[in-house]
Each structure stands twice: as C-alpha cells, then as structure tokens.
Fold each of these.
Amino acid sequence: MIQLILSGLALGCIYSLIALGYHVTFVTSKTLNFAQGSAMMLGAVIMLIVTVDFGYPAYFGIFVAIALLGLFGVVLERLAVRPFAHRGSVAWVLSTLAVGIVVENVVQLVFGKSPRGIESSLVAQPLKIAGAGIYPLELIIPVVVLVIVFAARILYAKSMVGRALRATAYDREAALAMGIDVNKMNGLSYALSSMLAAIGGVLLGPLIGVGGQMGFLIGLKAFAVAIIGGLQYPVGILVAGLGYGIAENMIGGYFGSSAKEIFGFGLVILVLFLRPSGLFGRTKLRRV
Amino acid sequence: MLVQIKRWSWIVLTTLSLVAAWFLPAYIGRYYTQMLSLSAILVIASHGLNLLAGYIGQVSLGHAAFYAIGAYAGALMATKIGFGFWSAMPFSIVLAALAGLLIALPSFKLDGPYLSMVTIAFGIIVHSILVEWADLTGGTQGVLNIPRPTLLGQRLLIEKQFVVIVAIAALATLLMRNLIRSPWGRNFVAVRENPIAAEAIGLSTQRVKTIAFTISAALVGLAGHLFAFMQGFISPEAFEFDTSIFFLTSVIFGGAGTLLGPLAGAPIMTFLPELLQGFVDYRLIIYGTLIVLSLYVLPRGIVGTVFRRQSALPDLIFDRLPKLTTSTAALPVHQVSDDVPVALHGIHMTFGGVKALRGIGFSVAPGSVHALIGPNGAGKTVLLNVLCGFYAPTSGQVTLGKVAITGLTPYAIARRGIARTFQTPQLFGEMTVLQNVLAGFPEQGRCGLLHALLRTPRLMAEEAERNAKARNLLAFTGYDGDLAAKAKSLPLGHQRLVEIARALALSPRLLVMDEPAAGLNPKEIDDLDRLIARMRTCNIAVLLVEHHMDLVMAISDRITVLDHGEKLAEGTPAEIQGDPRVIAAYLGEEEVN
C-alpha cells in the first residue's frame, strides 16, 4: 500500500513534468507538442549513451540530454509547428505526431529494439520504509520535480524572458506590438517543453529501462494529466499528475495493468464531460 | 451539355470500377486482390474520417476504436451466434454509430486538443478492453475462423468477395456525395468555416458535430465489419493507435474535405507498405516523413491540389448560374405577421471586476429601426451579444413579447427570429455566395437524413425553391456580384450584403446589426440606408449599432444612447440631437449646429 503510493508519487511527478511541457507550448502558441513522449524517450536514450556507452559521469549525461533536447524543441517548432500553426489543429497535431513517430523508430533502428537499463546507485538497493521497499531515486524524484517547478515559476514571474513568454501567452498581437519576437518565444516554449520531457526521461530511465518505445504511452498519459488538471493551469497539472500517478499505481496493483489504462483514460473522458476546462480550470468566455 | 456529362460521370465511373473489379482478379492473383479489397475498405473508413476531419474540421486520433467495434461486432456475431456477413452488418454499423454518439455527445462542448484527447483515450480504452476481456474477444489471440461472406446461398471466393467490397465502397462514395451536396453538407462546412456565424443563423454547432461524428463512426464501423470478414480473423494488433494515424494520413494525403480524397489516399496508403517491404524497419519512419512532407508539399492533399479552384461544396442543382437580374429586386421578402416587441430589462454584465453594462433596458418596437449609439467602450457590442445569447447577462432579462429568452443559446435565439450581422462580416469563407445564403434557411436543417442520402425528388424540389428564394434575397439586398464566387474572395461591401441576405433567410422579426456601415464607401452607405428602409417596409425591425450619425439620424425611429455601460438617453432622433448630455458625452457641438 505505502509502496504503491510512494512509487505512484514518483511516477506522477514525471507525468506532471511532461504535462507541464504541454502547458508551456499551449499557452504561448496554442499548439501542443505531440512528440512529448518521444522527447522524453530521447532524453533517456542520450543520457544512457553518454554515461553507459561513453562512460562519462551521470551529471554530464543529464546536462547533455537536456541541452540536446532544448535544441530538438527549437528545431521541432521551426520545422513541424510554425509552418502549420495558422492552418488549424489538424496540421500541427499530425506533424508533431509524425515527428514523434519518426524519432521513435529511428531510435529503435539505431539503438536496438530491446530496452536497456541504466545502472545507478540510486536504484541498486531498495530502502525499507514502513515495510515498503522503495528505491532512493523514487524519493528523490518528487524533490527534484518540485524544485524545477518552483524555479520555473520564479523564472516566469521575474525574468525578462519569462515576462515576454507570459505576454505572448496573454495576447499575441499585443506582444508583437511591444517588440516581442513571438516566433522566438514559441521556439523557446518548445525548447522548454522538450527539456522538461528530457528531465522526465533521465529521471525515469533508471527505473523502467531505456528503449525506443518507453515514451509513447507515458506521453499520452502526460497529455491526459494536462487535460485533467487544465491545460492553462500549472498548479492543476501538478496536482493532477500526482493524483493520476498514485491512483494508477493502486489500481494497477489491485486489478492489473490493462485495468489501469482503462481507468486512467476513462477518467479523462469523464473529467472533460463534467469540467471541460479541467478540474482546476475555469471556463472562459469566448469573444464574439 | 457539360452538366449532363458531369451528372452521368458518376454512374459511368461506378460501373467501370465494378466491371474492373469483376475481371481484374484473374490477372493479378489472390494476393493483390486481397490488397485491393483492403484499399476499398480503407476508402470507406477514410470517407468516414473525412466527414469529421475534412468537412467538420475536427481531428479524431481514435477512429481505430470504431473500426474495432465494427470488426468485433461482426466477427463475434458470426462465430458465436451464427449470424452471417449480411445479417450481422447492420449490427456492426449501429453499434459503432452508438459508440460514436456516446463519445461525441460529451466531447463537442470541446474542440481542438480536447477532442483529440477524448478520441485518443477512447481508442486506448477500446484496445485495452479487446485485450483484457478475453472471454468475449479472445484476448490477444483475437477471433479466428470468421466465415466467408455468402451471396444467394453461395460462399464467396476471394475474387467475388472483392467485387462485393468494391460495390459497397462505391455505394458509400455515392451516399457520401449525396450527403455532402445536401443541406447537411452545407451545415457541416458552415460549422467548420465559422462556428459563431453558424450559431447566429440558428445552427446548433454541437448537434451538427455530433451527427457528423456518429455518421463517421458508422462508416468506419462498416469498414471494420468488412475487414473482419475479408481477413477471416482479427486480433487487437490491427486496432492500435497506429491504425488511427494511418486513417488520418490517408485522409490528409488524399485531400481532407474533398469527396474524392479518400479514393486517392486510401489505395496509396495500402500499397505504399508493399513498395517498402524490403525495408520493414524503415516503414514507420517513411510514413512519418511522408506525413510531414505531404503537409509541406500538398497541404490540401492530392485531390485538393488538383481541384484547387473549386468551392468546398459542389452545388446540388445548378452547376452554372446566370447572373442576377436586378428586376427581381422588386420582389418583396416575407412579411412578419406577429407584432411582438423584443425588450431588454435591467441588463447587467460584469466581466471579472469590469462592469460593462449597468442596468440597461429598452424595447425595440416591431418593424421599427432602433439605433444604439455611444462612444467606443460604451458597451454596445456587449449588449448585442447579450441580446443574441452569446453572453449570458449577470442579471436582467431579455424578452420576446412576454417570453423570457435570457440565457438561451445563440442558435435558439436565432430560431426565434432574431438574426444578427457582425462588425466584421462573418461568412462561411470557402462556400459560395449562394451557398452562404442557402445555409441561412432554418428549414433546410430539417431535411431528413434519408432524403439527403437518396436525393429524393422532394429534396430536389425544396432545394430548387430555396435556390430561388436565396437569389431573391440577394437581389433584395442589392447584391450584384457573382453568385458562385467564394465568400472569402469578396470585397467588404459585398460581404456585408451577403451576410445581410443570409440573416434575412431566417425570416427574422428583428435583425441586429453591428456597425453595418463600417468600412463602406459613401455610395454603399446610401444603398445600406435604402436597404434598411426596404426591410422596414417588410415589417422587419432593425437594431443597429452605428457611428455614422448621418445614417443613424436619417433612418432611425428611436435611438438609445449608451455611455460607460449606462443608458444615457433614449428618444427620437430630434430629441437625441437636442439632448445636452448626449452632446457632451458623444455627439459633440458641431453636430447640432
């Protein structure tokens, strides 16, 4: 029981982190990055290559993974989002999905199909807490995620770039008129979103193993979390992610793994039915 | 002549494809016959998804679920309770349609990414159930030994089964064509092109989308049914997320929102994997790349690129339209019979902390011209939006005669005879001028689905009548341009007239106009002046927000002045021009002198 809650908490934090990536691009550019799952996977794979195959220390691997994924986000936005953003959601949904599919399969081709583990002292020996066995990493994850979320909030609120991002999110035209390079902000939001996914990937890699297919379902679940929490509401997303992770783990523990997907995605439909802007969102008046 | 050829071309093409389907298998062998059967099935599924993604403009990333429901319904009814290919078919279709309805009803309060989420979620749930509920579905093994289809008591060989599938695909294509060319097609495209305008002409966008989604699911369910019987076995593998993407790619690549798009996209998507057989590992990479490339190079898909100039909707009756003759302009528009005033009582509207309206009340007498004036930010447009149901007021009431209509949806208010035009004309850009007006007739929405699918004589007669009425309305407004031009290509003055004609199609008792003279040249303003006078003679009341004081003073029976969300004054033009408060707040000195 406690074990299920604690490991669910760790998983939920990862969902929140990736889900915040959806939030970041949605508020700035009104588009969503459906390659989030692949971005997470790519982060984990890069980390593994740098640390295991080349033997560099873990912190360096993490740094490289996050930096490269930032670049990935910029390129993705430039090539697969910006040209289609004005054309309605069909185009960018498909293009980001397609990029995700390509990335996933290229990685499987280059990296091999079977997942590999990252050895880490943090998952070597489970700790005993109130009778439950839990890896140190699973305890570290929530701390790291909370630090990142608060750092991001401060950055958003106080820095010049953060203000420009918020301005773009609030009113694109007005931001343009104030001399903010809206395209650059959209690129930045994609970089941030992919970097959040990368952090999720390097944190999760040692726990579940690294492989081309690790990202797909998690990416979708993170999307579900973003929707449940409310795409516009970071705090809602954080809470929804934790709740989702814990509930999913409990249901998976008692009813089996297919049941947890049915539950999770059923919940999304239910939430959207009852509260279209998410559990923590408010419905906005549309402008006529 | 050309029209005749066009009319027959469909019958000729259908016949040709059936003849080809009859003889082709002998030459290409069983393997390729099966591949062609599969692409015919994909054509049907693509038609289904195209209705949603193309004509309504909503992406579904979970249509594999309906494919699965159709397939499993057919397969299980055949293997467990002994139904045949034909007898199980209606159940497969209805079950998929019901599932579609179930998902569509709650989701169409949403759109864009939210709808994508619901469809993804539904796809995953259905797939998980297929795997999990092994007692019924056979789990990962799936359903084996599905009996071959029979016809007239004969078991169909692969070759003859192919002919049956092609015939069904051809039938589906024909029915789709009829549906799209019917008033239903206009409603679909109207909702895609401009949801706000669609509501303003009395269409419930949610209802239209739900219907489209249900039909879409039914078609994909039919495709799934055929797939199960064609293969003879099914397993959950065939209904994963990838399949939904595969359908969507077929639609986009072929040309979303074109009737022929699925016919082009589906075969290519079926045979592409064949070409790539040596590169199994690269297959999804190439798919993904192809999607992105086709978005770049062929944004309208193959068919959309070839027929670039055509309007989004083909015309049902007339392929070539003669120019309007102005003589018809003398014809009267309908007369409103009942004399019921529309009134506002103590309307308050608060946005957050901002009080946009503070206790506004006035009444628009039947058949009168009532102007609403005031400085920018006075709350005029907000008031119109409250009146037309786009905003629910914080407090206060809108009444039609003695009946309160406060808080009704915009389309419900429109159907009660309150039409609306917007500050920037809101037309259905990809539709022609005539189609825009046709879409405005409220009774067109009541055309039965069967009439639409079968193009019954009754429907054709109604359409001919509507056509005449629409042209008459356009002539009434003084529109003298091309009836077949796309609305988005019109100059502003013409857009305004088309929008007014479309609003008049509603037979309104009250027409609410938001700055109709904005951006018009002096001659056009004069024409507008006369048009409003003509409407008054038809007993149509007009509520008008306007800044051109010459126009307002010349045509209004009554004027209400708003300032900072409050009613400053109300009276006849003469009274308003003499009111010192109005002069101070809005008109300024020189207007009176």
Amino acid sequence: MNNDQLLGLITGVFFGFLLQKGRVLRFDKQVGAMLLRDMTIFKFMLSAILVGMVGIGLLTDAGIVTSSHKSMNLGAVLAGGALFGAGWAVMGFCPGTSIGALGEGRWHALFAIAGMIAGAALYAELYPFFKSTVLAWKDFGKIGLPTALGVSPWVIIPLFWAGTISLFFWFERKGL
Amino acid sequence: MKRRTEDGGWSPYLAGALVGLLAVASTYATTLWLGKTSYLGASTTFVRAAGLLERTVAPDRVAANEYFTKEKVRVDWQFMLVLGIFLGALISSVTDRSLKLERVPPTWEKRFGPSVGKRAVGAFLGGIVAMVGARMADGCPSGHGLSGMMQLSVSAFVALAMFFSVGVLVAALVYGRRTS
C-alpha cells in the first residue's frame, strides 16, 4: 500500500466510525429524512458542514489548502441531481453510506452497491452521448458562492450558521 | 437534545461536527502528504470499481472508454477511503453491539413485505439510477453535500437541493405518507 492509499484508508476508518456512531448509515434514517419524519441525517450533515466550512475557509485563506469546486454545469447538476434523488429514495442509501451500512451488518446494501457499480459502468458507456447533450447545455464553471455573489465568504458563513442553528432548534421543537 | 441515542449511538450533532473536523484535517493531510488537496467523496470510486471489474472480462473496452480514461481506473486515495468506511462502521458497530444482520429494512418491509427478492430488485435498480445521476452531477452527498458545501460551491447548493427535493417527491410516491 502506498502513502496515498494508507492515508485514504485511515481517513475512511474515522469517517465510517463517525457515520456509524451518528446512526446515519441506515436505510430507515435516509428514507426517514425523505419522508420528512426523521432529520437525523440533516443534523449530522449540517453539523459537519458548519464546522468544515469554517476550518476549510481559514485554511484556504491562509493559502494552506486549495479549493476544488465542482463545475456548475446546469444540465448536469439539475438532471443528474434529479436522477440521484429518485434512485436514492428507492435504494435508501447514498454511495458512501451503502458501504458503511454493509459494515454494520445491513447486508441488503450489497444489492445497492452492485446496482451502483452497474450504474457507473452504464454511465461510462453513455458518457459520449451525455457529453454532447445534457453536459453541453450551459456550464457556469467551477464557481464558489462568494465569487458568484461578489461578497466575502466570511459574510456567507455567519449567515449560514445562523440559518442552520435556527433550523436545528426547529427540528428539536418538532421532534424530528 | 440528547447526547446518546436509545441504542447507544452518539448525538448526530456531535458525530457530524467531528466529521467536520475530520474533513478539515483531511484537506490538510492530503495537501501535505499527497501534494494536492483532496476532499471527501465516494461516488468516483464506483466508477473505478466498475472499471476494475470490467477490465477482467473486457480489458480493451475499458482502455478505449473515454470516461474510464478520464477518471483513471486505479485504487487511489478515495478508493481506500471508501473501503475504510466499511471498516470504520464495522469496528464501531461491533464494539457498541449495534451490528445487526438485516435482510430487509423496516420501512421497506412495511410497504413491500419481507421479500428479499423485491428489496434486491429495488436496491439494484435504484442504485443504477442514482449512480448515473451522481456521475452526471459529478458528485454525491459526500462530494457535493459535504465537501462542496464546506467550500461554498454553487454546484453543491443546487445539487443538494435537487437530491433532496426529488428524493422527497419519489419517497412520498414509493413509500406513501402513512407508513410510519
């Protein structure tokens, strides 16, 4: 195993451990969120985002890490996002959590994993077609919200914190 | 707000915040050791896994495929990260005794019954659709949802809104509102 692989493995073990401790790997938690009954996965994701956006913002400002935005390709993100949402609802896992769910004994996740590998192979076959159609519609490039709005990230981050914390209080009040 | 869930899990706020710290530490560690900042993600690994499997039966087809060439079929940092998720979840669930061999998830069973076959077909077809979507959007709830949001990427806000709104719509159609 080379350094890259070793670092990936160690990071993944921590990631999987925390995903399992947060109890977000389960089908019922994921579908529970989509049925608007149990917001556990949102509490988890948004907490990670709140902490991560401050840390990554500081490291980026200090020039220590570089940001890597994914392209805001309109057709790709809208159509791909919609397909993902539809498949996610039926499958009840996302790519990362399917592997974790298998780790905590939910072996039916194997069917989801097999489907996703098949889906990846299918995408590779269809890539030339998508590239000339849905991916070719309109690409706004790799942009961050601060650049798009012309403001500092440190204006957006406190607002995001305030909104998210209010949402958390609302979740708790509603018992979600 | 409870610190522990009923089955011994951690508060999702705490576990999530720790994932935030892990994500920050990971960008720092990858920049330092790999020479390039890498962000947490998972779905590209499925492309590489598909390429590795397909290569065993049709190596020429994989070599000639534009998308496999673009994403590079190899066992890289993210591939090992995804395998690590399995190990981490196994360690956590064995040590707090929440590991459970589950045939069919409860919410699914309430709607479609205990048939493993039905669940297998649903999960497999759902998996195909979801992965085509994730690759088209260039990310999943890890790559867009966590890493993209942490960097305030415009694509992450749009992708996450699509994931969730369509997920809510399809979940309501598939499972119905009354299965609780």
